[in-house]
Amino acid sequence: MAQHKTEVTADCPNCGALVRLGSKPRIGQRVVCPSCGEPLRVINLDPPELDWDFEEPVPESDED
Ligand SMILES: [Zn+2]
After folding, report:
1. What is the DSSP letter of 3?
2. Residue by residue, what is the 3-state secondary structure of 7-63?
3. What is the pLDDT of residues 4-42, one digit of tens each?
4. In the prediction, which pLDDT does 2 show?
5. According to the model, what pLDDT value does residue 1 have?
6. Residue 63 C-alpha to ligand 1 middle, in angstroms?
7. Which of 35-39, 46-50, 56-60 has the lowest mean pLDDT?
8. Which domains can be identified in the chain, with CATH numbers?
9. Is a pLDDT exceeding 90 seen at residue 64?
10. How far is the CA of 24 from the centre of ligand 1 (A)?
């Protein structure tokens, strides 16, 4: 039984490099572009698509 590892790849939206997502990527999966180091997130699987993984700013409850 030969097991084929099919690795899904997507283009980095920042630099266009091919980013590996593993064999079974999930929506919301976080990856880092190996080329530009940009933090990315899987936003689509068919076709595989990446977008910037913006960190949600923590609202400061301490008002001045
Ligand atoms: Zn990149």
Report:
1. P
2. CEEEECCCCCCEEEEECCCCCCCEEECCCCCCEEEEEEECCEEEEECCCCCCCCCCC
3. 678 999 999 999 999 999 999 999 999 999 999 999 999
4. 62
5. 64
6. 37
7. 56-60
8. 8-52 (2.20.28.160)
9. no
10. 20
Residue 61 Cα to ligand 1 middle (Å): 34
Number of Cβ within 10 Å of residue 40's Cβ equals: 22
**Contact (CB, 8 A) for 22 and 32:** no
Retrieve residue 59's tokens: 């609202």
Distance in Å, CA 3 to ligand 1 centroid: 30
Ligand 1 centroid distance, CA of 62 (Å): 36
Query: 1: which DSSP letter?
Result: -
